[in-house]
Specification:
Layout (H helix, E strand, L loop, with lengths): L2 E8 L3 E2 L9 H20 L8 E5 L7 H8 L8 E4 L5 H13 L6 E7 L1 H4 L20 H12 L3 H17 L1 H5 L19 H4 L19 E11 H7 L3 E11 L9 H12 L8 E4 L4 H10 L15 H4 L3 H15 L5 E8 L3 E10 L26
Parallel strand pairs: 3-4, 3-5, 8-9
Antiparallel strand pairs: 1-6, 1-7, 2-6, 5-6, 7-10, 9-10
Length: about 400
């Protein structure tokens, strides 16, 4: 039995310390969970459905945010919550576990990634977590990106060109992206995408002593993203479209070069799905640093400007709420794949960890019979009954 994503939502992402400064990670997660529960109810078309469990991914765990978020969303004391901390891969790790739970037929499982760096660190200083034990390499992520670029010969100019494309693609996709948003605190758009000019970016000083600059490193951000998953039989009964989870993987790699873990994770997830890269229509790679994305795409044999690679931009443009970014990659696939197309989401994380999820977009209708898409203006859960 397999799992299907039947709803996908996220908040707009805000620069850390700004719009969401008064909100905690479970507040951000609860807003997304509430919207997902409403979407599931709409998808079930009158069937009495209750959330079975919440799995939350956070980049800097604080207690059990999944449990707090489930309670804050009004699901009741009987709905359990489990928190996953896999640093920047937390959101995708939460989806892996949620898919396994949902596939058992236990009922809808909600996977959410959330991050509120501001609420825990009011002075703006985020304590450095240990990604590896004593005796292992454990570089800060900025210097690690510099080392990765040097190791693979990824030039500063290539990193800058990728960052410029990320912002440009995010600006073009801004209206389409917003159709998947849960507005929060008066925010309706991602705060950071802007026009980047190559001649301006070229003047930035190195951020960590190498080739990475502020333009080619993602900014700290606050936000949440989530997905609702059910087993295939339930999705068929409801006539739901969405994303069928074809395969997932988590891999370990050299902790000295954590950004290099993404490509092996993609390969492992594709093997799990019994597919190869030629079958992939869209690849969403976490953009913590431009060097990380280019390391992944080049390892996979893709051109830097491949149209399948982060076509709506990524964290370089919209910011990087560590726990939420991985789930947001799947939200992007939910809104960007046509029925029958295959997508892959992958994140690399501190300690040398890569997590990837492979999905195929499903047409709405029982047995996969295509139906006419519902216009995006129809409101919450618009893509439950037809992918654009």
């Amino acid at each position: 039995m397999s799992a299907v994503v039947v709803a996908a939502r996220r908040t707009p992402f805000a620069t850390a310390g700004t719009t969401y400064a008064g909100l905690r990670d479970h507040d951000l997660a609860a807003a997304v969970l509430t919207a997902l529960a409403e979407d599931v109810a709409a998808c079930a078309a009158g069937e009495d459905v209750a959330v079975a469990e919440v799995v939350a991914g956070v980049g800097t765990a604080d207690g059990n945010p999944a449990r707090r978020a489930a309670l804050a969303a009004g699901f009741g004391a009987g709905v359990p919550g489990t928190t996953v901390d896999a640093q920047c891969a937390s959101g995708l790790a939460a989806v892996r576990f949620a898919a396994a739970l949902a596939a058992t037929g236990s009922g809808p499982v909600l996977a959410v990634g959330a991050e509120s760096t501001t609420s825990r660190h009011l002075d703006g200083v985020v304590p450095r977590a240990a990604f590896a034990p004593d005796g292992f390499p454990d570089p800060d992520m900025g210097p690690a990106a510099d080392a990765l670029a040097a190791h693979l010969g990824i030039s500063r100019a290539d990193q800058e060109a990728f960052a410029v494309r990320s912002h440009a693609r995010a600006l073009v996709a801004r209206r389409r992206t917003a159709e998947r948003f849960v507005p929060l605190a008066g925010v309706e758009h991602d705060a950071r995408p802007r026009v980047l000019r190559p001649e301006v970016v070229a003047r930035f000083s190195p951020a960590f002593g190498g080739t990475v600059t502020a333009a080619t490193a993602s900014a700290h951000a606050d936000g949440a993203a989530g997905l609702a998953l059910v087993d295939l039989a339930t999705a068929e009964r409801w006539g739901a479209g969405g994303l069928a989870v074809l395969g997932t993987a988590a891999v370990g790699a050299d902790p000295a070069l954590p950004g290099a873990a993404a490509a092996p994770a993609v390969r492992a997830a594709l093997r799990s799905a019994r597919l190869d890269l030629a079958a992939v229509d869209r690849l969403e790679v976490g953009e913590a640093f431009a060097a990380q994305v280019l390391a992944c795409s080049r390892d996979l044999g893709l051109d830097d400007a491949d149209a399948r690679l982060n076509p709506d931009g990524g964290a370089l443009a919209i910011g990087h709420p560590w726990g939420a970014t991985g789930a947001a990659l799947l939200v992007a696939l939910a809104g960007g794949l046509a029925a029958g197309q295959v997508g892959v989401a992958v994140s690399a994380a501190g300690g040398g960890l890569g997590v990837a999820v492979v999905v195929r977009a499903r047409a709405a209708g029982r047995g996969g019979t295509p139906t006419a898409p519902v216009p995006a203006s129809s409101g919450a859960g618009w893509w439950l009954t037809g992918l654009p």
